[in-house]
Amino acid sequence: MRRVKVLTLEVDQKIKAIVPHVRFIDSDNTLEEMYRLIGCDLIDIAQVEVGGKFFDVYCDDEFLLKEKPVPTLFLEDEQVLCGNLVFTVCDKDGKLEDVSEEDIDKLIDFILIQAVKLRIYLAK
Asked: 3-state class of 11 per DSSP?
């Protein structure tokens, strides 16, 4: 079993916040791990470019069907992702790699900037 480091953005209902976490997943059971972390039945993958690097963002494909979906991330094409998200990075062959500490810092900065854009977008 090979463990891979990912960054998650998780909705915490207790404190009513969206919180980033570093998690480790079993790369041999990626889909099962994603379903567990996201808490959904159907996964979709968006791609974001941050600092010249591409990241896959796993999300709940059916979040709009949920009662009171929580907006989590705003993407440049006015797409809003809701619920728990998992950020991953792949090598040139599509194999999951660890998200580096530098990647995490860049992603956190990206998430914070997008949070401001999300607030502005939702206020329209």
From this structure: strand
